Amino acid sequence: MISLSASSKDKEIRLDQPPAVSIQDLSITYRTTFEKVPTLRSAIVRFGRGERAVKEVHALQNLTFDVPVGTSLGIIGANGAGKSTLTRAVAGVLAPSSGRIEVRGRISSLLALGVGFNSKLTGRENVVLGGLAQGMTRAQVAQRAEHIAEFADIGEFMDMPLITYSSGMAARLAFAVGVHMDPDILMIDEALSAGDAAFKVKAAAKMEELMKSARAMFLVSHSLGSIKEMCNDCIWLHKGKLMLHADPQTCIDAYTKFLKVGENAFTMEDM
Ligand SMILES: Nc1ncnc2c1ncn2[C@@H]1O[C@H](COP(=O)(O)OP(=O)(O)OP(=O)(O)O)[C@@H](O)[C@H]1O
Ligand SMILES: [Mg+2]
Q: What is the residue extent of each domain of the chain?
């Protein structure tokens, strides 16, 4: 659990401006093909030929909602509900299967650990390449690389290939890169935070600072206490569907009741 002061929650939601993010009828389907492992009998019958199987997962189904400027949006729901899929789609890492996502502002996602990193290059080379790709000058890139190295605080590993990093080191570098982008929209998928205790404290302080200046924030967390403390709006996802979009307390109550009574006994009317 990350604990921050409640400052992000107290931001004013601005309905007089175009929303920071609009999501319209968004659906995402993963389609994976794999080789079915043949049983001995079927292998004999079929002369050892493998069988291709296709698995489709409807990870998000027809989601529509706006995220106004000033929103700290909590995203809750069970494992596999589609939370990370949603944040990856908003961050532009994953294309919608159908529907639209409009984002107004620069997004920084502290979720996709090293998406876009090349594991054969060193930490510093990755940072430099990323900066150049964003159209920064060499001088700007060099200066930023220094700040990032300082924040990540991974010592000589900054000049080692990423393939030699522990997952915590990779997380620290990814986080350091994310927070040095001056993001307008901040996305945090807590499930992926892998830093040690000391780094978590430092990361929390930095996030708090960023949230003050960000136009909007998304927080995915299984810690309902963090959601209540930090968010002023909330969505609850279940099996790819938007179950409820309401204030955090209402969402948390509905979700915890659902967890208690089970899927079949749950009715929204009793809430
Ligand atoms: N790359 C992928 N290929 C195929 N299926 C995937 C892929 N990533 C996720 N899924 C499936 O999509 C669904 C949503 O997954 P997602 O990771 O968005 O859930 P989540 O809400 O973030 O869960 P958690 O709380 O465990 O982090 C799940 O059924 C998952 O199995
Ligand atoms: Mg997830």
A: 19-36+56-105+232-271, 113-214
For the stretch 10-23, pLDDT in tens is 778 888 889 999 99
Choose the residue to mutate in 54, 76, 85 for probing ligand 1, maximizing ligand atoms within 8 Å of C-beta.
Answer: 85
Interval 55-81 mean pLDDT: 95
Measured CA to CA, the distance from residue 233 to residue 218 in angstroms comes to 10
Whether 182 has a pLDDT exceeding 80, the answer reads no
* Ligand 1 center from residue 30 Cα (angstroms): 9
Architecture of the domain defined by 113-214: 3-Layer(aba) Sandwich (3.40)
Q: Tell me which residue of 16, 12, 4, 18 sits closest to 72, measured CA to CA.
A: 12
Mark the residues whose beta carbon lies below 5 A from ion ligand 2: 84, 191
**Which ligand number lies closest to the CA of residue 77?**
1
- Which DSSP category does 183 fall into? -
Return the CATH number of the domain spanning residue range 19-36+56-105+232-271.
3.40.50.300
